[in-house]
Amino acid sequence: MLESVRNFLSGKTVIVVAVLLAIPFVFLGSTSLGTTFSSYGTVNGESVTQIDINLATSQVSQRLQSIYGEDFSLEDLDEEVSVNLIKNEVINQKILLSQAKKMGLSTSEKKAKQEIINLPNFQGEEGFEQTLFESTIRANGFAPEEYIRLVQESMSLDRLVSAMGVAAFPIEQDIVSMASMLETSRDIDFIKIDKAALTDSQKGSLTEGQEFYDANPFLFLSQERRDFSYIVLTFENYKQQVNVPDGYIEKAYADYLDDLQGQIQNRISHLMIEKSNYENSSDAKNRIEQILAEIQAGSLLFEDAVTSSSDDLASKDVLGDLGLSSGDAFPEEFEAEIADMALNDLSGVIELEDSFHVLKLTEKLTPEIKSLELMSSQILDELVDAEALALMQEDFLELESLVLAGVTLEDLAQNSQSSISVTGLQDITSIALDNFDNYTPSDLFDARVSPNNIEIFEGEDSYAFVMLTQKLEPAVQPFVDVAELAIQEVRSEKANTLIAEFKNQVEPILAGASALPELAGVSKETFKNVKRFSSLLPSEVVTKIFENPVGSLVSSNSFNGDSYWAKSSNEVIPSAEDLGESLDQYQGFYSEVLGQQFSSFIDQAFKKNQKVRLENFAAN
Questions:
Q1: Is the pTM for the entire model greater than 0.85?
Q2: N or C: which terminus of the chain carries fewer CB neighbours within 10 A?
Q3: What b/e sequence results for 285-299 when a residue is b if at least 16 CB atoms lie within 10 Å of its CB, and e otherwise?
């Protein structure tokens, strides 16, 4: 559990920016802009909302993709399995959060806001950049309090994990023991048989090959072969079918010019007085009116007033800057006032539900107007792409319905004015569909694919309708076609016999009492000061040597079939003094191993008395 949280908290910037995906408007004292999320129950008293489920879904998906690849989707799993994975993720996070609160490690709302303001991802040339909020506000509907809560929880979990990491401290003697074990070395005498070299040196006759073939016919089965007929709908083909209406580009350019008028952006700064900081609303209003009067009289600069008097901690350090708006990012009261302001003008006092504000218009941005010549190709490309996609989707849906109705591939081809292609009889290693690659050969050779049934494959910009027309089952191939393979098998069997006979000669040869036989691929060598992670020998061989006492005869096969027989001697176990500065190299490695063990212990402790009250839970 804690290991997943460490991944989840690999930096607050990562979780805030990459996982939450939406940044609500939280600093103007305005009413909530988001959605009311239903509760799905509680875990250790912590409420579970739709946002928690969405975040857990994202975490589980990312973790599985890191294991199985980016193409993996939770939809590939049974619904029960995916729901349980997400449910466990929610439970783990909420248990840790409740524990953080019990230990007094909760993060305040003020700290969460400061963290958001200081995120490098939201810094423009002049500090915190409001425009980074705008698109996500419109695209998503997080309420301010929900977003701040998520950041608070993330920071609280970070503090908890950091605290536990400190508790899991390494003991110097344990580090010395581990380092000494890993730095222990032995001299190794070994004999190696290169299986490929020994096999190639053996002779095999045509007669021997025939005998082996007759005795083992099922080793020489041919691969199944299949023949498919298919049609492919491609995006590129549909692009060629698009007709551009007369005058379309000129009309689209006129619309483009109209849209630019709505893209003028205004940057504002504000001075905010929070009503809750005064005895009553009148006192708060009097205070901001007094400040405004001083600014208008020239005795106080607006920026100095913000620095000394504004109650908005989020924008105070950037002289009240709230970023840019094209007319819908700020509260309606702000936008109405901005519409009549010139550059560097000050507004009057604006009242919101919880606060009073004075605005200053600090910048106007007018978008660059591109010429008709520059925009023509872009407009044309956008039209062709959109129309081609629509035509292809329309045809695909129609063909899909025809497949469900049981029509033939010829009917599909005629309906879509497509030509039918054929693969010819191919095995799984050579099968290919021209102009379509969003499939695997195993898809076509799946046992569920039956003759004369149309299979549908969907790609990013193409579709394929494929029908199996002929299937040849595996059969024993004629000897004349596999003679070389049979003879190679004879050579391999002879090599195996020699290796089996050689085993009895190994020990005296290693001891120097017998000479090495003159066989291809057989060698004897000695390596000095070999350590556990040495690459001089295959890892499986080295591991087995160090698992056995010094002087033991060890036999092992490597992954490529080579055979090894080895004896070790002259073991050197370094002391702490011998290790010297190299101990520092093992500090981090040991701490990581210890942390994993400690995580398991804490996991059990935290979850021992867990109280889960989840209901109506589903991976929405």
A1: no
A2: C
A3: bebbeebbebbeeee
